[in-house]
Each structure stands twice: as structure tokens, then as C-alpha cells.
């Protein structure tokens, strides 16, 4: 049996010592299961406990008064959400499940120096990906937005050991993708067809393939996210 995706990602962020691995393994032995379209956290409400995503996809979302929604970023296996240092934290955004999701309550800060380092890098990456989303929505055209996000998802899923060569599972709808990119579902569909004709992206049966990630990165102007010089 392979390394669980969450443990795989956190160990990629920082070398985990035996205390950290043991604490994470124990925490993952108490999973919580959620069906799609369930709230993990609700904007403005107290965070009952942080969550470590073990499997499935969730998303941070802001819902406007008229019902429109903006997905701020996707949460993937190995991501930690709501893990703050201050007392009585409230959720800055809602977090909803997009697929069936399994989570656990992660070990506390201070459990292990190596785990604290992994948490710190994870928080830095969260910030970096949110900043990338701001730039994506503010300055990129539709094709660049789609290509940049697909490359980001490939990069993040690879950290959890969840890519298969040039492909990865993409269990979301075009409508969800549109709400993440500030586009209409019709426009997303047109851009995906154009990307397929160009040989840049192939989305088929809940699987995304990027035949040449380096070429697509050059085309959309993407640089790999880095938060450490190490």
C-alpha cells in the first residue's frame, strides 16, 4: 500500500520526523466523511476544528448576495484548512465539498518541529496560490486563466502523488471551473475545445492531460510557485 496522499504532501513540504509521522498516522485513523455539496466551514462562523483533507476535492468559496459565487481556490488531498494560531478563529470564507471528501483533525502546532515546518510551508503555499488566483483573474485572458490553473492543479496534485504521468483526475464540472475563473460555462467550453485542438489540454471523462506542460507554461507565462530558497 502506498503512502497516503496527505502524508505524501506534508513530507514533501518538510522532512517529517518519526513523531510527526506517528501523530499524522494516528490523526488519519479518525477520519470524517462528507458527501458532495456539504459545508466544512461557513463564512463568519466559528471554526470548530481545523481540517486536513485526506481524499476528495473541496473549495473555498465566496457567495454574493444575489447568489453568484466565486471559488477562490480548490482544496486537495494534503491541504490543511482552518489551522490558525490565534484564539477563537472564524472562517474567512465558506469551504464546501465538491466531491465525496474525507478529512481528519490534524495534529496541533507544537507536536513536532518538523510538522510545524510543514504547516508553515503549507500556509505560505496557500498564500502564494491565492495571490496567483488574483493575478489570474485580474490580468489573464480566458485561455491563459484555464491553462494556468490546469498547470497549478497538476503541480499541486503531484505533491500528493496523485498524478499519472501527464494526466490527473479532474472531478469537477465546467460550471465549477467557470466559477473559479470568472467566466461563463459556455466560454470555458469553447476555450477547452480550442486548447484541445491546439494540443495543449485534453479533458476527457474526468481526467485532464497536459501533453507538454513546459510548452503550455511558456504559452501562458507561468512560473512554478516557490516559497523557499531551499
UniProtKB/TrEMBL annotation:
Database matches in InterPro entries: cNMP-bd_dom, cNMP-bd_dom_sf, HTH_CRP, RmlC-like_jellyroll, WH-like_DNA-bd_sf, WH_DNA-bd_sf
Its protein name is Cyclic nucleotide-binding protein
- Tell me the first and last residues of the signal peptide: none
* HTH crp-type domain sequence ranges: 140-214
Output the GO biological process annotations, alphabetical, semicolon-separated: regulation of DNA-templated transcription
What GO molecular-function term can you cite, just one? DNA binding
Which organism is the protein's source?
Answer: Sphingomonas sanguinis
- Determine the domain of life of the protein's source: Bacteria
Pfam family example for this protein? Answer: HTH_Crp_2
Chain segments annotated as transmembrane: none
Keywords, ordered alphabetically = DNA-binding, Transcription, Transcription regulation
Amino acid at each position: 500500500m502506498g503512502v497516503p496522499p496527505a502524508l505524501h504532501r506534508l513530507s514533501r513540504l518538510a522532512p517529517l520526523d518519526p513523531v510527526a509521522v506517528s501523530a499524522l498516522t494516528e490523526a488519519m485513523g479518525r477520519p470524517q466523511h462528507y458527501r458532495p455539496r456539504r459545508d466544512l466551514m461557513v463564512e463568519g462562523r466559528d471554526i470548530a476544528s481545523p481540517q486536513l483533507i485526506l481524499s476528495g476535492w473541496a473549495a473555498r468559496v465566496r457567495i454574493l448576495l444575489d447568489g453568484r459565487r466565486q471559488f477562490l481556490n480548490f482544496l486537495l488531498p494534503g491541504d490543511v484548512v482552518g489551522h490558525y494560531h490565534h484564539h477563537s478563529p472564524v472562517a474567512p470564507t465558506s469551504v464546501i465539498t465538491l466531491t465525496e471528501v474525507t478529512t481528519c483533525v490534524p495534529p496541533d502546532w507544537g507536536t513536532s518541529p518538523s510538522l510545524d515546518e510543514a504547516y508553515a510551508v503549507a500556509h505560505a503555499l496557500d498564500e502564494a496560490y491565492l495571490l496567483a488566483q488574483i493575478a489570474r483573474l485580474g490580468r489573464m485572458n480566458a485561455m491563459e486563466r484555464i491553462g494556468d490553473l490546469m498547470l497549478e492543479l497538476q503541480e499541486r496534485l503531484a505533491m500528493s502523488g496523485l498524478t499519472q504521468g501527464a494526466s490527473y483526475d479532474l472531478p469537477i464540472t465546467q460550471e465549477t471551473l467557470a466559477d473559479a475563473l470568472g467566466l461563463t460555462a459556455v466560454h470555458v467550453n469553447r476555450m477547452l475545445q480550442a486548447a484541445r485542438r491546439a494540443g495543449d489540454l485534453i479533458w476527457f471523462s474526468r481526467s485532464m492531460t497536459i501533453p507538454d506542460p513546459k510548452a503550455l507554461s511558456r504559452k501562458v507565462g507561468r512560473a512554478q510557485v516557490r516559497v523557499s530558497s531551499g
